[in-house]
Amino acid sequence: MSEIGSESNPLRVAIIGAGPSGFYTVSNFLKHKDLHVEFDMFDRLPTPYGLVRAGVAPDHQKDKSVQRAYDKSAQSANFRFYGNVEYGRDIHLDDLRRHYHQVMFTSGAPFDRNLGIPGEELAGSHSATEFVAWYNGHPDFVGRDFDLDQESVAVVGVGNVAMDVARILCKTHAELAVTDMADYALDALQNSKVKNVYILGRRGPAQAAFTPPEIKEMGEFEDADVTVPAGEATLDPASAAALEAGGDKNAQKNVTYIEEYASRESSGKSRLLTIRFLVSPTELIGEDGRVTGIKLVKNKLVQGDDGSIRPQATDEEEIIPVGLVFRSVGYLGRPLPEIPYDERNGTINNSAGRVQAEDGSAVTGIYTAGWIKRGPTGVIGTNKTCAQETVGCMVEDLAAGQINMPEDPSAEGAQQLIDARQPDAISYPEWLRIDAEETSRGEAAGRPRVKFTDIAEMVSIAKS
Ligand code: NAP
């Protein structure tokens, strides 16, 4: 038998999750020109691209252009896509061990963190991830209901997801109608009665997690003004000193935008976005099971011995009347059947992408990359270097003979298994059919695409 990774005996790699990290796994392997690899990429949805399709904001089409590079990887001869096939439902770890030398888990972080405060379970309290998935047409979130009859909304957290949510709430129908947002969301938002949007940060402007292009956009709405209470835009001495020292260019730019917003006069637009700092929610107030307000405690900032600047509650409290709350305090990983999981961090147990058992030993042939490896941080491109590190380990382990030895490493064997388990599996050419139909519907409406949001409908288009 020739060497594994040669033309006659290719390395068989299964990738679970067709988001950025899954595709960067392929592109990183393709850089190893001497290695022959067959990739089978699985996703529980019929569509590829993960959060690029269902997370990246619909009014940020430029960020979605990475799809072109993913498409290029997908066109390589030894790549196969199995959409609508779910790990843990249709295929299991022993199936993968039977057919692949190496398995890469790139399943992302689909859950959300909660605040752990009273009232969080009230109607009208949602996670930002739920709202994002809804307006992006993720099939699992189609039926969600957000009460956009409410005039005031709070978004907790000052990361880029909070910026996305607030932007979508503040934009006019005309601004949204040119996006690929799901049609039902476009309709619901057209009838939105939202007038006041509050973004709530627990620390100061210098510690905000958003990035400069995102905060800049907050000052450019067609029909929404932006403001920041002057007292909350002013930096405390420790933050000012840290900024002065010049380490963090993004923070410097963020602070400049915030200061400018604090000095802006209202121009009388229909909506008002208020960005607050130094406040932490302590309770969601409700009436008849519905949110009617959010109780906040004012924070001051304290510097720890390690130099970090943390919020500390004062005894000053306030209640903002709001009928809708989106908590946007970070995504969270989902444990996968039979894969060692670190509950505290919400990630697969791993070292540099090599999956580890509880005793710290490497689990042969099992790897991870992306948010489920390192947690929900960084921009799309961060996943490229993340996948590169893991692929480096996979290549190293192959050279050292540390791989899984499958009983049936043939592509046909895997295909037969999938045919038996999920007859409605979607191949890449079938996805391209869905894609073509969506973009042609979009062209007719002057939009990038009009998405299908129903799995049965997607399958029917794909198989037509
Ligand atoms: P994130 O960047 O980690 O921000 C989370 C925010 O929640 C922080 O402001 C954090 O404040 C705050 N927070 C956490 N726990 C809190 C609590 N108990 N009470 C109040 N506030 C709390 O998370 P994200 O916004 O979900 O974004 C995830 C990743 O996706 C990020 O890397 C982000 O940059 C990326 N992303 C990028 C884009 C883009 O490039 N346009 C768009 C969307 C997402 P502290 O800092 O005080 O903890």
Residues in β-strands, percent:
15-25%
- Quickly give the structural class: alpha/beta
User: What is the gyration radius calculated from CA atoms?
Assistant: 24 Å
Bin the helical content: 25-40%
Q: Main β-sheet: number of strands, strand sense, barrel status?
A: 7 strands, mixed
Q: Biggest sheet: strands side by side, in what order?
A: 3-2-1-4-20-19-18
The pLDDT mean sits at 97
Number of DSSP E strands = 20
Tell me the quaternary state: single chain
Put simply, the count of helices is: 17
User: How would you describe the shape?
Assistant: globular
**Low-confidence runs (pLDDT<50, min 5 residues)?**
none
Name the hetero compounds present. NADP nicotinamide-adenine-dinucleotide phosphate
Characterization of the model:
It is a single chain. This protein has 464 residues and is of the alpha/beta class. It has 17 helices and 20 strands. It has helices at 20-30, 51-54, 67-74, 93-99, 128-135, 160-170, 173-176, 183-190, 212-217, 230-233, 237-244, 249-262, 371-374, 382-399, 411-421, 428-445, 455-462, and strands at 11-16, 37-43, 79-83, 102-105, 111-112, 125-127, 152-156, 196-200, 224-227, 271-276, 279-287, 290-303, 309-321, 324-327, 331-332, 341-342, 347-348, 350-351, 354-356, 362-368. Strands 3-2-1-4-20-19-18 form a seven-stranded mixed beta sheet, sandwiched between helices. Strands 6-14-7-8-10-9 form a six-stranded parallel beta sheet. Strands 11-12-13 form a three-stranded antiparallel beta sheet, with no helix packed on it. A hairpin with a 5-residue loop joins strand 12 (290-303) and strand 13 (309-321). Helix 1 (20-30) crosses helix 14. It starts with 10 loop residues before the first strand and ends with a helix. The model has no long low-confidence stretch (mean pLDDT 97). NADP nicotinamide-adenine-dinucleotide phosphate binds next to helix 6.
